[in-house]
Structures are given as structure tokens and as C-alpha cells.
């Protein structure tokens, strides 16, 4: 989960997640946006205008991962996004029609943060199995891995990017998915296949002229993706 907050509107923390980004604080080390990346960001549809009647809370059922029950072999709870969304609905914190559904990050979007070689490596199920620590994934055809695993990750990545836009507009935003803090531009790991935090920072710098970002990581261990 990624909680994104614009520091210009300080409020008490609500629904804290493992990562929190502030748009004007310490630099993240993600580096400047080069011309090629800027062009890709300009062509991207990850940023879109969200109607005022929606809350800055991002989720779609496309986030959820199911592998015919095989996912239960991993200690990671792959239904946590759906359950978190359901929890918010049941608690009355948000109505179903107030939740923002983000776009899936495309290959072009992902190239803003990733090398082409890394993205190509995800076409090999063995590589995805290593990143996700799901051994059985190595045995599956890659089209199935793409559909059941990588596509949800790409939707969650789109959610983190759009949360950056919404946080600047509304003062805060929460992406129920994402927060892949072990993935960098050329390498994934620890169930993190896409560098969604780096992407969100680069989009915010380019589209919203944000200069400094602070990443507050509340996971059990230190993230090592966006730093490299
Ligand atoms: Zn972690």
C-alpha cells in the first residue's frame, strides 16, 4: 500500500501504509527525468483527471492475484488488496463508487523507470518466480504469469502513479496496492516486480514540477529499490 501526502497540507496521518511520500522534503535519490522519459510521461495515460465526487483512494479488482489456490503456498497474502478495499467499504470510510480505478501501466510507462532488458526478462517465468519467490510460477507458461501476476502488478503500479497526482491536488491519497520497494530499474525481488515508487516520483517531478520527495517506509525491512 502506498499513502501519498502533499506536505503543503499537513494533517494527522490516516490509514498509514508501508510507504508514505511527501512531495517536499528529502530527495529520494530517484534522479532527474531525462528527455526520453519526459516524452514517455507526456504520452502516458496513467495521469487522468479524477472527478471531485471521488475520494483519493485507489483500487480495482484488477489488483488481485489468484492462481487457482496455488498462491496460498506463499506466506504473502495475495488477497490483501481486495480485503483492504472490503474493510474500507464495510467501515463506511468510502463508498464503492467513490473509489478511483487506475489504469494499467504500459510497457512505455514502465520504461520511464526500467531498462528494456529488465522488462524483457519478465517474459521468462523463471525470472518472475525468483522475483516473487513463488517457485511454481517457473513451471507456468508466461502468458498465464502475465495475466494472473504481472497484470495485477501493473495495475497497482498505475495506482501508485495516479496517487501522486491526487495527493498534490487533494493533499493526500492512498493506493491500496503497490509499494514495491525492493524493485529498482534493472532488478526485481521480494515480491516486487515494478518500481512503482520510482515511477510515481518521476511522474510527479515531470507533470507537477515537484522537486523533492520523501519516502517513509513502514515495512518490516528497509526498501532497496527506489534508492538505486
Ligand atoms: Zn519489503
UniProtKB/TrEMBL annotation:
Domain Histone deacetylase: 74-227
Xref: Pfam families: Hist_deacetyl
Stretches for region Disordered: 1-35
Annotated InterPro entries: HDACs, His_deacetylse_dom, His_deacetylse_dom_sf, Ureohydrolase_dom_sf
Signal sequence segment: none
Alphabetized PANTHER family for the sequence: HISTONE DEACETYLASE 11, HISTONE DEACETYLASE HDAC1-RELATED
Record-given protein name: Predicted histone deacetylase
